[in-house]
Amino acid sequence: MKLILPVPATSIRNDPAGSGVFKARRGPRIHKGVDLVCEPGDLVVAPLDGWITKIGYPYSDDLSYRYVEITSESHLVCRVFYIEPTVELGSEVEAGDQIGFAQDVAARYKLDARGGIRYRTNQMLPHVHVELRCTEAHVASKTKEKCVFLDLGLFFFLE
How far is 53 from 7, CA to CA, in rounded Å? Predict the structure, then answer.
């Protein structure tokens, strides 16, 4: 399977607001993806071949941010968060095809609803968040384990 970077990223986010590495701590939970540094407005491409199976909203209290989900023929699922989609639900894409433009998610974390600072600093770098996971159908064909999230940093950065 061919996987490519969805943005022309040179690094994984690591800033005063936190780390964008796979399994970084997020309070009581863990980070299930990788944050790739990019500029708002950067072109975002499909990281793998597949079909657009969902266009969603990562935050129920803010519908200005979006994500695109791509499911491959082998049942791998990739979600790319904080993008303005340019694809339609059900469309087929190949790795490298345009799926949208990067949004400025850093703007969300500068102020909370009461105008207070969410973090000690507002220096979060703009980025896209990318998750790769196996669907149960994919895992069932390989093992008896449940659906798992994969460290896609290993796929992208070890090539």
Answer: 20
The CATH number that domain 14-157 falls under is 2.70.70.10
Amino acid at 122: N
pLDDT tens column, 40-74: 999 999 999 999 999 999 999 999 999 999 999 98
Instruction: Summarize pLDDT for 94-118 with one digit per residue, the tens.
Output: 999 999 999 998 887 764 444 444 4
Q: Are 21 and 14 in contact (CB under 8 A)?
A: yes
Beta strands in 46-105 (DSSP E): 50-56, 67-71, 76-81, 83-85, 92-93, 98-102
Q: Half-sphere exposure (CA, 13 Å, Cβ side) for 153?
A: 17
The residue ranges of every structural domain in the chain are 14-157
Provide the β-strand partners of residue 36. Answer: 12, 128
